[in-house]
Amino acid sequence: MSDNRFTDTRDRYPTRLTEPSDPIPREEPTVWGQESAGPLFETDLQSIEANGYLVQRSAVDDNWLSTLRGELNNIGAKADPEDPRIIREPGGSIRSVFQPHLFSDVIAEVVTLDTVLPVARQLLGSDVYLHQARINLMPGFTGTGFYWHSDFETWHAEDGMPAMRAVSCSISLTDNFPYNGSLMVMPGSHKTFYPCVGATPRNNHTSSLVKQEIGVPSQATLTEAAARYGIDQITGPAGTALWFDSNVMHGSGSNITPFPRSNVFLVFNSVENQLVAPYRAETPRPEYLAARDSQPFNIPSLVQ
Q: Where is there biased composition of kind Basic and acidic residues (predicted)?
């Protein structure tokens, strides 16, 4: 039976404030399931509970990687310039593709792999659905980074996600080196919510997906957090999956090397953590950014 503390819709994590506010201790567990409920071992569960992230090597094998890279090329070639799900860098190159599982049956099938969907269910202790899915492309020389942020801050403020019962899986399609914009995380920061200053502009997503300026901590807050938690850089070969909690502080630098960095990014939310009205925005973000249909994930039958 669910704990009522984690199923109500009170705003326990106020943000987008007019004045700075003290950090808020996390109320929810990080790991909701047991070792017997999925493929992760108890040591894995303890690691993500403590650090807010877990690295799985060889989550996707070489055959899948080759096929997925081909899908990336197909999506890019067929992308409608007017499709709002295609986010471009200021220079015109594709930065992100949202809802890739609706563009590609192959990507939809990856979501259901034994190394993916059962892990999400185990970590969240329930059936899950895709809150958001996207491909992130960071091409050589031109790929720009993502500033430090907690995903939950945005999902709570702009999507109406009540509780920290969501987890992200980033599957690398290219090798992640220390020098090509690989992700950085502050281990343990998921246990603290950092309220941000500044009201949410109307249709904030139209600019924040290219450069996020609202819903990011101040430099003073980040300095304090980095001193407290430190920074881990996530590297590894293609096929590596990084699981990280919705509230862990993370970001990445730009890629000025010749080596691209691409990944499939999947956000799983518990079916017991359904979205409500946004806590700090006038209207919800579009469905391709925040799915409001919380039916457990199934492979879609139609591909565009």
A: 1-14
The Cα 153–Cα 118 span in angstroms is 26
* 144, two tokens: 């720009």
Nearest-angstrom CA–CA distance, 191 and 52 = 8
Q: What is the pLDDT of residues 225-272, one digit of tens each?
A: 999 999 999 999 999 999 999 999 999 999 999 999 999 999 999 999
DSSP code of residue 251: E
Q: Is 50 exposed, middle or buried, given 0-12, 13-18 or 19+ CB atoms closer than 10 A?
A: middle
How far is the CA of 118 from the CAs of 36, 51, 169, 212, in angstroms? 11, 21, 12, 32
| Termini Cα distance of the chain | 39
Q: Look at 70-79, 186-195, 233-242, 293-302 and tell me which has the smallest mean pLDDT.
A: 293-302
Identify the H or E element spanning 153: helix 151-154
Kindly list the distances between the CA atom of residue 152 and the CA atoms of 99, 157, 159, 236, in Å, as whole numbers in the listed order: 19, 8, 9, 25
- The closest alpha carbon to 60, from 108, 106, 116, 98, belongs to 116
Residue where the block lists tokens 């994590």: 13
Rounded CA separation 191/209 (Å): 25
Token pair belonging to 32? 């909701």
DSSP code for 297: P
DSSP 49-81: HHHSEEEETTSS-HHHHHHHHHHHHHHHHH--T
CA–CA gap between residue 251 and residue 217 (Å, rounded): 12
Cross-strand pairs, 128:
270
Write out pLDDT tens, residues 81-102: 788 888 877 777 777 888 988 8
pTM more than 0.85: yes
Residue with tokens 């919705």, as numbered in its chain: 246
User: How is 163-216 classified by DSSP, letter by letter?
Assistant: SS-EEEEEEESS-B-TTTT-EEE-TTGGGEE---BSPPPTTTHHHHTTS--SS-
